């Protein structure tokens, strides 16, 4: 028995064959288990190929992922700021909720980032009513020193949106900023600390 | 984006270049696995915002764990595991935030579907890797036929690829055959 070739089968699946050819292919498929199997395999393969485009993340998200690497590249040069990546060492979002505890609205999110001997404590409170967040924090050193009068910036989509300075005890605050994903950076004399993803949109 | 020079590099080579501070190697890695990472929260039926959150969290974890992955040839498996865990975590967290006392003890994670998601993601990734193993010409044809959302006609494909329109069908059949062979070698039918 002469089997259907892949080209005819793929054209048939696409509806690109003549009525006469369609009948011929269908007649063969009704009698040939091998060709039915090949057709199913090709259909699944084509489906997987087509489906893949639905998993394409937004371009700006991919760009965000790519730009994550940039701070690693900044060489430590003379008077220029050195950039450091801070690791997230604690996040209440990662902690299980206590059994039986109920509350109205999302709880504030508490995060602790660490870069070298500097800790940055961040608390994000979400205001559902006006779709804004308040972000307060403190820059702390493992030594007893406070980082006062230190510039702190909130960036989103590559643009610095908000700036503030730390107070005498290293505290800073951004009140009622619109919900977004921000990079928070702290300019210290020994380098710039960039904290990623300080708001994930679900705090 | 300009990471084409590393496209043919394996994961261990890319990771080793990343660890030396090469941004293009990192870009190649992200571009290679962007769909794999994003597909998992999509399969969990997460909202676009949650899919983005998971994507960001996994990118961060990847950058943090590059050093541990440098000898690993299967970054994809690590990513599937990490992304799935992150999705389960987000789902459990949301479930617990929204649950009432009556449903408090209900498991947020029906394990069967999670396993299905893992298998589907793994198979989908193998299809991507198989497409990458095709010749440039086949790859270009497959990309135009199945990945291009503008659905170019045979005429446009023929013009772009400098081939007669009548050759598009037979070439497509040959490329799909090759793809099928690569996948069969990997145990995917």
Count the domains of chain B.
2
Average pLDDT of chain A works out at 76
Helix content of chain A: 25-40%
CATH class of the largest domain in chain B: Mainly Alpha
Q: What can be said about the biggest beta sheet of chain A?
A: 5 strands, mixed
| Most extensive protein-chain contact, per-chain counts | A-B, 50 and 57 residues
Apparent shape of chain A? rod-shaped
Beta-strand level of the residues of chain B, as a percent range?
under 5%
Care to count the β-strands of chain B?
A: 0
Indicate the low-confidence ranges of chain B by residue numbers: 101-109
Oligomer: heterodimer
CATH superfamily of the largest domain in chain B: RNA polymerase sigma factor, region 2, helix turn helix motif
**Structural class of the helix and strand makeup of chain A?**
alpha+beta
Largest sheet of chain B: none
Helix and strand content put the structural class of chain B at mainly alpha
Query: Cα-atom Rg of chain B, whole angstroms?
Result: 20 Å
- Topology of chain B as a string of helices (H) and strands (E): HHHHHHHH
Spatial order of strands in the largest sheet of chain A: 1-10-9-6-7
SSE string of chain A = HHHHHEEEEEEEEEE
CATH names the topology of the largest domain in chain B as Rna Polymerase Sigma Factor, Chain: A
First-residue to last-residue Cα separation of chain A: 65 Å
Based on the model shown, name its key terms.
heterodimer, A: 203 residues, alpha+beta, 5-stranded mixed beta sheet, 5-stranded antiparallel beta sheet, 26% helix, rod-shaped, B: mainly alpha, Rna Polymerase Sigma Factor, Chain: A, Arc Repressor Mutant, subunit A, 2 domains, globular
């Amino acid at each position: 028995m002469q089997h259907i070739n892949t080209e005819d089968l793929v054209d048939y699946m696409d509806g690109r064959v003549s009525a006469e050819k369609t009948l011929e292919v269908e007649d063969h498929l009704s009698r040939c288990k091998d060709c039915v199997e090949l057709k199913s395999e090709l259909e699944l393969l084509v489906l997987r190929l087509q489906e893949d485009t639905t998993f394409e993340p937004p371009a700006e998200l991919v760009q965000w992922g790519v730009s994550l690497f940039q701070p690693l590249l900044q060489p430590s040069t003379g008077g220029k700021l050195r950039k450091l990546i801070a690791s997230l060492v604690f996040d209440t979002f990662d902690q299980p909720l206590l059994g039986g505890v109920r509350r109205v609205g999302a709880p504030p999110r508490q995060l602790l980032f660490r870069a070298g001997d500097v800790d940055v404590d961040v608390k994000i409170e979400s205001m559902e009513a006006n779709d804004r967040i308040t972000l307060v924090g403190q820059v702390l050193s493992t030594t007893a020193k406070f980082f006062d009068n230190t510039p702190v910036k909130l960036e989103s989509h590559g643009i610095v949106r908000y700036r503030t300075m730390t107070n005498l005890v290293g505290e800073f605050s951004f009140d009622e900023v619109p919900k977004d994903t921000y990079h928070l950076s702290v300019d210290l004399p020994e380098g710039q600390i960039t904290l990623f993803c300080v708001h994930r949109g679900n705090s | 984006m300009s990471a084409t020079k590393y496209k043919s590099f394996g994961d261990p080579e890319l990771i080793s270049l990343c660890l030396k501070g090469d941004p293009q190697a990192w870009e190649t890695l992200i571009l290679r696995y962007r769909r794999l990472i994003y597909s998992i929260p999509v399969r969990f039926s997460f909202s676009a915002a949650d899919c983005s959150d998971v994507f960001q969290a996994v990118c961060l974890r990847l950058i943090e764990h590059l050093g541990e992955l440098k000898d690993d040839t299967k970054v994809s498996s690590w990513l599937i595991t990490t992304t799935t865990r992150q999705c389960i975590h987000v789902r459990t967290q949301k479930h617990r935030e929204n649950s009432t006392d009556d449903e408090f003890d209900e498991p947020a994670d029906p394990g069967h579907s999670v396993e299905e998601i893992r298998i589907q993601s793994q198979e989908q990734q193998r299809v991507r890797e198989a497409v990458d193993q095709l010749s440039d010409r086949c790859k270009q044809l497959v990309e135009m036929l199945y990945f291009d959302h503008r659905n170019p006609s045979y005429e446009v494909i023929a013009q772009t690829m400098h081939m007669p329109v009548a050759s598009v069908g037979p070439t497509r059949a040959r490329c799909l055959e090759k793809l099928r062979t690569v996948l069969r070698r990997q145990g995917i039918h």
